[in-house]
Amino acid sequence: MVSVLLVEDDPVVRSAVTRALTGLGHAVLPVGTALEALREITGGGFDLVVLDLGLPDMDGADALRMMRGVCDVPVIVATARDDESEIVRLLNAGADDYLVKPFSSEHLAARLSAVLRRARKEPAPAPFRIGRLTVDLDRREARLDGRELNLTRKEFDLLAYLAAREGKVVPRAELLANLWNLPGRHDDQTLDVHLSWLRRKLGERAAQPRYLHTVRGVGFKLTAAE
Fold this sequence. Notes:
- With about 230 residues, the protein is of the alpha/beta class.
- Helices cover about 40% and strands about 20% of the residues.
- The chain is built from eight helices and twelve strands.
- The protein has helices at about 10-25, 35-45, 60-70, 85-95, 105-120, 155-165, 170-180, 190-200, and strands at about 5, 25-30, 50, 75-80, 95-100, 130, 135, 140-145, 145-150, 170, 210-215, 220.
- The chain is elongated, with a radius of gyration of 19 Å.
- It starts with a strand and ends with a strand.
- This is Response regulator transcription factor.
- Keywords: DNA-binding, Phosphoprotein, Transcription, Transcription regulation.
- Pfam families: Response_reg, Trans_reg_C.
- InterPro entries: CheY-like_superfamily (IPR011006), OmpR/PhoB-type_DNA-bd (IPR001867), Sig_transdc_resp-reg_receiver (IPR001789), WalR-like (IPR039420), WH-like_DNA-bd_sf (IPR036388).
């Protein structure tokens, strides 16, 4: 049985979604505000969160960022807007997937199952060691010369993805699809900004890379510093 925290301020929608999820055999705790959700998520015990963005006490994206500060539970956000900028904002804030309102119970069930499949934990591999850089997936920790790097969730995900493919050129489209759920043709600066931040924390610049190399027109690769 999957334990779901449902965060929805509209009592009608909250009741309908609760019925749909319990009908699928899930245990559901419905709450109506961001503060209630943060209190419950801090206590732990949930497998997934369904988060409505139109909450009365806090912007949903802000609530999402606060959740990400205390846990890694998968979050599906529900939004009334389907424009690309809104979707990018939510994914960058830490959402694992999104639903555009109104949605059917079948659509919700399919999204929930897909997110849970991706979130199922497998035995963690040994830490990746690339020169003096160590990336530990189990601890979600990266160290350079023994010093822990202060990485955001997405920065670590990006570094870990490249570390698992050490020396291989990873296409830009592959990174956007697998880390941001964005189509390969997407041309905003999301990936470039995260790469820039990651390079800064690795103590390098694009013009003088040590670990993170750009293969112009193709993609990016992580290799040991010479």
